[in-house]
Amino acid sequence: MGTFILKRLLHMIPILLGVSLLTFLLMSLTPGGYLQSLKQNPQISPETVEKLLAKFHLDQPWYVQYLHWLKNVATGDFGYSIQYKISATELIMARLWNTFLLSFFATVVAWCIAVPLGIWAAVNKDSLVDRACSLIAFVGLSIPEILLALLALMFAAATNWFPIGGAQGSLYDLMTPTERFWNRAHHLVLPVLVLAASSLAGIMRQMRSNLLDTLRADYVTAARAKGLSEGLVIYKHALRNAINPLLTIFGYSLAGLLSGAFIVENIMAWPGLGRLTIEAYTAKDSMLVVDSVVMATALLVVGNFVADVMLAWSDPRIRLKE
Amino acid sequence: MSEPATNLPLSPRQIFWRRLRARRAAMAGGVILGLLYLTALLAGFVAPYHYETDDRDRFFHPPILPKLDGLRLVVPRWEQKEGQFIYAAIASDTKPLRFLVKGDKYKLFALIPCQTHLFSTGEKTHPIYLLGTDQFGRCVFSRILYGSQISLSIGLLGITLSFTFGMLNGGISGYFGGHVDTVIMRVCELIMSIPSLYLILALRNTFPSNISSTQAYAMIIVILSFIGWASMARVVRGMALSLRERQFVLAARALGATPWRIITRHILPSTFSYVIVAATLSVPYYILGEVVLSYLAVGIQEPQASWGNMLTAAQNTEHLRSYPWLLAPGAAIFITVLAFNFLGDGLRDAADTKSQ
Fold first, then answer.
1. Do the Cβ atoms of A31 and B192 come within 8 Å?
2. For residue B332, is it within any domain?
C-alpha cells in the first residue's frame, strides 16, 4: 500500500508541471502580451508594474518567465494580484478553500442520496419506484447546471428562505464565531444542493446497474440457495461487490464536479476559484488566470489521488498489481 | 418455391434499425431533434420578428398567446400601466392571427432575401410575443429560434471537428504504438487533467476580448474541439490496439496497403458504431460550452441571439422573479439535451449486440 501511494504521489508531479507549462504557454499567446496590457491599464501604478517585472521577469521570453514563476510557486508565493491589491497567495488559498467546501459537501450530499436510491431502484427492479428513479435520473442528467442554478436563485428570491448568492452576510465582520458558522452554512445550502443535484443522477444510475449485475452473479444464487435471508444476500454479498466500480466513477466524476462548481460559483456569486478565474480574465490579470487554472487542476489531481487510494484500499487486485 | 426472403438472416444494419425503432424514447428524441433542426434551418421564416427588432413600448412584456374566437385565432391588444412594466389585455380589441404574412426582412438560409413569416398579426399595435419580450422589448420566441441556429450548429460542427481529429490521432496512436503513442497519449492526459471550464477560459484568454460574433462562433468551436478530441482519441486508441492484430488488418498489411490506408479504411470504420453513439451523447457538451461562454459574456455578443447570452438577462434576481419567461432559453437547452440523451441512449442499446 505504501509503495502504491508513493507511486501515485510521484505521478502527480509531471501532470502539474505539464499543466502549468501549458497554461503558461497559452498565457504568453495573449494578444498584445501580458506586460503590454499591464502598462496600459490605468488602475495599475508604474511601481506595481516594476515590482512584477522584477519578480517574474516579464520582459523575458515566456519560458524564462515560467521558470521564475515555478521557482516562486514552489516556495508558496503566487505573486501579487493587480485587481485585489493583495497577495495572490492569500487570495487563491481563500478561493481554493471555498471551492473545496462547495465540492466536498456537494459530493457528500449527492452520494448520500444517490447510493440508497440506486439500491432501492435495483432491489425493486421494474417497479414504479424504479421507473420513477430512472425518469428522474434522465431529467437530472439533461438539466443544465446553469438552469438549475438560476431556478435556485429564483426560489431563494421568491421564498426568502435562503440568501441570494454570496458566501457570507453583509454583517459578517460583526458576528460572533457561532453566528459566523451558521451564516456560512446558510449560504452554502443552495449552491451545494444545485451542484449535488447535477451529479446525483449519474451515480444513481451506476449504482443501480452495478447492483443488478452482481445480483445476477453465481455467488448470489449460491447464497440464496443456502437459505440466507434476502437482506443478508443483498447487503452482505451483492452490495459489497457492487461498490467497487462506483469508486472508479468517483474519480471520473471529479472533473465534471469542478466544472459544475465553476458554473454554480459564477451564477450564485460563490467566491471560489471559478469565479476568480472569470474575474481575473475580465481584469486582464493573466497571471492570476494561470494561477487559478493550475490550482483547480491541483484540486482535481489530488481528488483523483484520493479516489485511487480508496480504490486500492477496497480492492486488493489493484494495489497488488502496481 | 418463391417464398419471399423472410428466412434470410437480417443484415446488422437491419437488426440495428429494428432494435432502435422498438425504443420509443429514442425515436421521440430523434423526432424532436429533427423538428428542432428544421426550425433552426427556417428560423427567419418561423420567427414572427427579427432578432434585433425591439418594441420600445413593450419592455418585459409577458407571453401573448392567441385566443380562439369562433373559428379564428385572434390576438388581443395589451395596454401598459403607467410607469410600470405591467400589462393588461383588452379583450374587446383583437386582430386575427394570419399566416404567411409580410414582416421584418431576413435572409432565408442566410442567402435568399425574404419577408414572409409563417405567422404574425401584421399589426404593430397587436404584436404576438409567444414567450414575451426581454429588457429591450425583443421577442424572446424569435430570439430563441435565431439562437438555436448557433447552439445546434455548434454542437454538430464541434463534434465533427473534434471527433475527426480524435479518431485520426487515436488510430495513429494505436496502430503505430511506441513513441508516437506515448506522446499523443501524454497530451491527451494533460488536456483531460484540467477541469474543462478552466481550460476553456485559459484558451479564451488567448483570443482578443472584443471579437465579432462570427469570429466568436468560430473561436468557440475551435476551443471546444481542442478539448473534446482527447477523450475520443483515448478510446479509439484502445480499440485500434486490438484491431491491428485482427486478420483483416494483417491481410491488408500483407497486401502492401499503406499505414494511412489501413487506419482510415480498415481500423477506423470498425470503431464507427462506438463513435456514433459517443458523438450523439457528447453533442450536449458543445451546446452547454457555448451557453456558458456566452452567459459569462465572453462568447457570442449582443445583439446576436444565442441561448447563452439570452440567459444573461435572467442573471438579475429582480428580473428573474418578476419576468420568469426570461428563463425560456434554459427550457430550450433542457429539451435539446434531453432529446440528444434519449437518442444516444437508444443508439447505444441498439448497437450493443451482446445483450438481447
1. no
2. yes
CA dihedral B250, B254, B258, B260 (to 10 degrees): -10
At A279-307, the pLDDT tens digits run: 888 877 778 888 888 888 988 888 888 88
Q: Are residues B226 and B172 in the same domain?
A: yes
Closest CA of chain A from B30, distance in Å: 15
Indicate whether B270 and B151 sit together in one domain.
yes
- Cα B133 to Cα A64: distance, rounded to the nearest angstrom: 53
Give the DSSP per-residue string, A193-232: HHHHHHHHHHHHHHHHHHHHHHHTSHHHHHHHHTT--HHH
**Which of B138, B156, B174 represents a domain boundary (last residue)?**
B138
Q: pLDDT tens-digit profile of A183-241?
A: 888 888 889 999 998 888 888 888 888 888 888 888 888 888 888 888 888 888 888 78
From chain A, pick out residues whose CB is under 8 angstroms from the CB of B192: 255
| Interval A3-26 mean pLDDT | 86
Residues of A numbered 162-181 whose beta carbons fall under 8 angstroms of chain B's beta carbons: which are they?
164-165
Nearest CA-CA partner of B167 in B76, B44, B279: B279
Nearest to B201 among A147, A165, A277 (CB): A277
Residue B25 inside a domain? The answer is no
> Which of B195, B201, B204 lies closest to A297 in CB terms?
B195
Q: Give the total number of structural domains in chain B.
A: 2
Domain boundary among B120, B138, B156: B138
Same domain (yes/no): B162, B247: yes
Q: Taking CB atoms and an 8 Å cutoff, what residues of chain A touch B291?
A: 144, 146
Closest chain B C-alpha to A255 CA, distance in angstroms: 5
Q: Which residues of B touch A19 (CB under 8 A)?
A: 190, 193-194
B68 and B85 in a common domain: yes
B327–A31: do the CB atoms touch at under 8 Å?
A: no
- Look at residue B117 in the predicted model and tell me its pLDDT: 78
Q: Is the pLDDT of residue B174 over 70?
A: yes
Pairwise pLDDT comparison (B144 vs B72), residue with the higher score: B144
Mean pLDDT, range A77-89, rounded to an integer = 76
Strand-strand pairing, B87-96 and B98-108: unpaired
All three cell numbers of B223, joined, read 476551443
Q: Is residue B157 located within the same domain as residue B292? A: yes
Residues B129 and B187 in one domain: no
Q: Are B175 and B87 found together in one domain? A: no
Q: How high is the pLDDT of residue B140?
A: 87
B202 and B245 belong to one structural domain:
yes
CB burial class (10 A; 0-12, 13-18, 19+) of residue B318?
Answer: exposed
Chain A residue nearest residue B199, CA to CA? A293
Give pLDDT tens digits for B256-299. Answer: 889 899 988 888 888 888 888 888 888 988 999 999 988 888 88
Q: Tell me the residue range of the domain where B208 lies.
A: 142-351
Whether residue B195 and residue A300 make contact (CB cut-off 8 A), yes or no, is yes
pTM of the model: 0.86
Binary contact (B206, A301; C-beta < 8 A)? no
CATH of the domain at B333: 1.10.3720.10
Which helix (H) or strand (E) segment holds residue B319: the answer is helix B317-322
Q: Are B21 and B332 in contact (CB under 8 A)?
A: no
**Nearest residue to B191 via CA among A21, A57, A278, A232:** A21
